[in-house]
Amino acid sequence: MVKKQLELLVALQDLDMMIREVEDVKQLGFETPSLDKLEKAREELREKIGKPLYATYERLKARYKRAIVPVKDDTCLGCFMRLPTSLAARGREDAEVITCENCGRILYWLE
Amino acid sequence: MTREELARLFSEQRFIVPMRAKNKDEVLEELLDTFVREGLIRNRAIVLEMLHKRESLGSTGIGKGVAIPHGRSTAVPDVSIAFGRSAAPIDFDSIDGKPAQLFFMVLAPPQELNSRYLPALGRLVELVNESKNRKRLLAAESFAEFVAVIKGEE
Question: d(Cα B97, Cα A78) in Å, to the nearest integer?
């Protein structure tokens, strides 16, 4: 359940990145959607994410631009602080949403 | 970004000539699987969804027989590119309405320290816009020959 929510959040962040880069990509000669279409797709995705988790995402996004970050080699790729071993073990279980103790970003285990 | 730097984003494991794909969806999956096989991407489903989402919002078929599906995902660890060429042209909903034969898949994490994603995409577009390069890419039989084209070696 948590894993699914985290995956939806990752997809939402990927979409937010797409929205942010529409103009840049357009200038390179790619066909890009109107912002309305992207916003609509974002809205549909947002509805599937639990309200408290979404609120945390928005709060973190306002602060860092990137709210959910991957963990690699037990390191938060948002602030590059090494995570306690116990946290890494809990994160892999996908039973709860885990945030970085240092920067507060939501953590996503790539492995 | 220099062509030398661009060439470093490719790998022989992500070079498929000829591709097996027969349609657009299969092209996306076949290229993505090269990243998965190399161990670069663990969550295939999430990246595939991002790529489909991108295509549904506007095709990355830029015309002249070339498509450059691309995107950023939290599930991608570093900027990297895969290349594939199909023996027969494949319909990719390209902007010129013509099918594509040369496919580049550019993947990147949401934020990278050295910002190579957009420069790499730009350099690639520039490169394939030259008909001389497209002809050479259509003829390259090995990864070494392919890299020589990317680097601009004669």
Answer: 41
